[in-house]
Structures are given as C-alpha cells and as structure tokens.
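The authors assume throughout that readers already know how a fold can be written as discrete tokens. What matters is that the chain and its backbone geometry are given together, residue for residue. A single example would do more here than another paragraph of explanation. For illustration, here is how one protein appears when written out as sequence plus structure tokens.
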Amino acid sequence: MITCPDRTFDQTEARPPRFIADFKRFFVRGLAAHPPTLITLWLLGSIWDFLWNSIGQHIITFVQETWYNVAKSDRHIPLESWQFITYYLNKNDFRTRAFGRRPFVLMIYILVSCWSN
C-alpha cells in the first residue's frame, strides 16, 4: 500500500486491465456496432428488390414493346428485331434494373419533397 497525506492507494487497483479483458470488451463493442449497419444494408437491398419486382420489370417491358412498335410504324427510327431489343434491355442486367427503378425512385423523391413543404 502507498500512503499519501490525503489518500491511500492500493497497488492492485492501479494496474491496467489485462489483454484478454480489453480484447473481450473491444470485441463485444465491435459486435454491437455491426448489426445496425447490416440491418440497414439488408433493408436497402430489400427495398431495391421490391422496386424491381413491383414496378421496374413492368417499366422495362413497356419500354421494350413501345420501342418495337414505334420502330415498326415510324421510318425515322431504325427497325430492330425483338431479339435485339430484349438483348439490349436484358432484365438480368444491372444497368437495365437500375433504369427500371429510376422512375419509381424519382416519384418517391417528388412525393416526399412535395409532402415536406
């Protein structure tokens, strides 16, 4: 024991925590920080899939059919085969999926911005 004029200290209390205790504490705190991030990423992915399944596929189908029908009836637009159009706007392509979701995301943005004013 160390004695000072105003306090008494025990040397066992002054020693720093062991490595295992620190590691366990930091590991548990790190685990506690990850679930909110993972839940947020999962939620964004679910919303992304919902937008594709609910409206994105229908938008792409509408664009494909409109492109083909307008090209058949208008001489200023080059006539492309249906196979080319479905290959160009492939529903499994990320670029096409992003294009199909864009109008729905824009509509939500407009609704939220109008509602907040």
Observations:
- The helical segments are 11-14, 19-73, 82-88, 94-116.
